[in-house]
Specification:
Helix content of chain A: 25-40%
Strand content of chain A: 5-15%
CATH superfamily of the largest domain in chain A: Type I PLP-dependent aspartate aminotransferase-like (Major domain)
Order of helices and strands of chain A: EHHEHEHEEEHEHEHEEHHHEEHEEEHEE
Oligomer: homodimer
Number of strands of chain A: 17
CATH architecture of the largest domain in chain A: 3-Layer(aba) Sandwich
Mean pLDDT of chain A: 96
Largest sheet of chain A: 5 strands, mixed
Structural class of chain A: alpha/beta
Distance between the termini of chain A: 56 Å
CATH topology of the largest domain in chain A: Aspartate Aminotransferase, domain 2
CATH class of the largest domain in chain A: Alpha Beta
Shape of chain A: globular
Radius of gyration of chain A: 22 Å
Largest interface: A-B, 98 and 98 residues
């Protein structure tokens, strides 16, 4: 008779996980990237060089660099953010984290209490909302248009909260390659967001984890770069630009916040080998990302063409100028939570929209499709299969691939 | 005028961290290891081989192995635990964590609620108690002797709790190279602990993170290996046996607990490169640990000799049969929290006993000295300096290095 742990579990736990069943045949979920885009040989060279130089330092927690992370890596991050996001920072403002998910957790732990309110985008990274829900924190969504968060609606939301006597703990935004809509917030709106935040005396939490992946138009300066008051806490990641299985993210913050983040980062440091390798590889970062973006653009083209071909006018979407996902809205008769179940059972994994919006009702007919991981031929087959399933279950699309179904 | 974050902080935060000031000259704190013990060349070879084979898989979260960790690494861990701790487990029972600190956090998150009680050893890893305090969990200490936790006192503690209507959530133990006392719990006591846990119907949480570092006497079977009911949640680490800056620990648990651990491990996985490298390096693990233990035994000898020489009978301690620290008790007039401050200011870092015991009062005259990191000459100088400071501040030791002070 095995020991029964169930009476011992924390009563606020989420439900148990299911067993891992392997990758679905047509995998349009998760922030996976293109296996052909991993710079394997260069990573081997970087690992060899950095271990030869500093391998002995692995014997000490923090690699003699302190709890903020390996010093050469923090310097490399500061340099990349200067080049790519116009951020004028030093390594002392950088905290290396185990992916940007830990960045979210640490910032939330420092700022949030049960019952607090935060402002987010009306369509938003699902993992952010899962975290907020687990912390007992309320959120209010700000509407998006093709250029990201609408500043008129942000004003309205902030005024509305103020009228209720609620001061949000932060405005959370993914301004550059917004998740899930893929929009890029123009510089004017970034400045406007800072003004609104100032008028309401609240911080901004800028999550820029997809910002390196842009192939059309430039990358605007980070909101952090436009901020003259230190109001912005910034986080980023190498998960999307190098490889998600390397758990390397970072937070940029000034000492008053940094000292609090450090006090709750009780993990003994982020993996040093990955930091060492990436600090060595950083010199090739720009070149690598250019090549990766070409590759991702090709896949974006493939999925957009497949959607047009298979779904025709049934699927509404904007072809994203960067990133790894496209946000699609289907006709009203299609509930994507239901569709995700049916399609999942047939090997087509999609993110139902309800999990990626501030108000689940508004995402009922939408879905997020990630396109970086599957080969182009698999993308085409998967979208065709998804259209077939939609046709079979909901009667639309009526025509696909130029033939009546 | 910089933005003031202070009104926004979570009110239950610990105080801010201080700025990192570099390594102290005589560093007797922290789980650092010997830089000469890091197998740098073998790690380079392992990194090269594993990246050549599986580097492309870095493009996917979880390396196509699911959320429990890289499959070859989990298999390697299961194999090592069979060889070294007599544990009969499979890779399905292994969850790779970012160091054993994350293992503590995950197990605590799954089992503990504010107001709960747990049973620990009367002298205990400081980080365990810091975590419990932050979670609002109470602890009761069980007395130790030269062989670890005293089973007569465990019975007494459990009966006492029962009389008060309190059922502890787990018995936490570091049975093998106990932290900070260095003792190794004999197999009979391990079996007795299982019986007591059974009689009181409570789980055991076995923290074996130092267990590979034994140079005198054998390593007893893990408590997990003696458990026939699945009552034990086990954790371990490669931090002490390979390198602390590699953040690689693991939990061994059956599916009812594993499924709950997975549901709260929302970090996107533990760093894959470190898992890959260690899975490749695992074949050399036994040989490496044998060599490392010889090295550590040499340092243990050095610190024990230095303590005898400089402190004479003023310092009470048992030379540990493994691990990286020695637990020293000084005369009553010496408050080690005070000593730690004075010595710290003069470049000698020590762990004051009050932070490493269940009841701070019982540790007032004790201290933990970690000896793995400093070179042998530095150990000697540091202990001499510590004795000088004690003599100057407290009048003892009166004699040191065979001369009157």
């Amino acid at each position: 008779m095995p020991f029964d742990f169930s009476p011992f579990f924390n009563r606020t736990l989420p439900g148990p996980s299911g067993k891992y069943g392997g990758f679905p045949t047509f995998n349009f979920v998760g922030g996976h990237n293109d296996p052909d885009g991993v710079p394997v040989d260069d990573l081997i060279a970087a690992a060899t060089k950095t271990l030869q130089r500093d391998g002995r330092d692995l014997a000490t927690y923090g690699m003699r660099s302190g709890p903020q992370g390996y010093l050469p890596f923090r310097k490399a991050i500061a340099g990349l953010l200067k080049d790519r996001a116009a951020m004028d920072i030093t390594e002392d403002q950088v905290l290396v984290t185990s992916g940007s998910l830990q960045a979210l957790d640490l910032v939330n732990e420092v700022l949030l209490e049960r019952g607090d309110t935060v402002v987010i985008e009306a369509a938003c990274y699902g993992g952010t909302m899962t975290r907020l829900a687990r912390l007992g924190v309320n959120w209010v969504g700000v509407d998006l248009d093709a250029h990201g968060m609408r500043m008129d609606h942000l004003r309205e939301v902030m005024d509305g909260l103020k009228a209720k006597g609620i001061k949000p703990k932060y405005i959370y935004t993914i301004p550059t390659v917004q998740n899930p809509t893929g929009s890029i917030l123009p510089e004017e709106r970034r400045r406007e967001m800072l003004e609104i935040a100032k008028a309401h005396d609240v911080p901004i939490f800028e999550d820029d984890c997809y910002a390196d992946l842009i192939w059309e138009g430039g990358r605007p300066p980070a909101i952090q770069a436009l901020d003259t008051e230190g109001r912005v806490i910034y986080c980023g990641s190498f998960s999307k630009s190098i490889a998600p299985a390397l758990r390397l993210g970072y937070i940029v913050a000034d000492w008053p916040v940094m000292s609090r983040l450090l006090a709750v980062k009780s993990d003994g440091g982020t993996g040093a080998l990955e930091q060492m390798v990436m600090s060595e590889y950083a010199a090739k970062f720009h070149e690598h990302v250019d090549a990766l973006n070409l590759r991702l653009r090709g896949k974006r083209d493939a999925i957009v063409e497949a959607l047009a071909k298979e779904f025709g006018t049934t699927a509404e979407f904007t072809a994203p100028a960067g990133g790894i996902f496209v946000w699609v809205t289907l006709p009203e008769q299609i509930d994507t939570t239901h569709l995700a179940k049916i399609a999942g059972a047939e090997g087509v994994a999609i993110n139902p929209g309800a999990e990626w919006v501030a108000d689940p009702e508004t995402g009922r007919h939408s879905l997020r499709l990630c396109f970086a991981n599957p080969p182009i031929e698999t993308i085409r087959e998967g979208i065709a299969k998804l259209a077939e399933i939609c046709h079979r279950e909901y009667g639309v699309p009526v025509r696909g691939a130029n033939t009546q179904r």
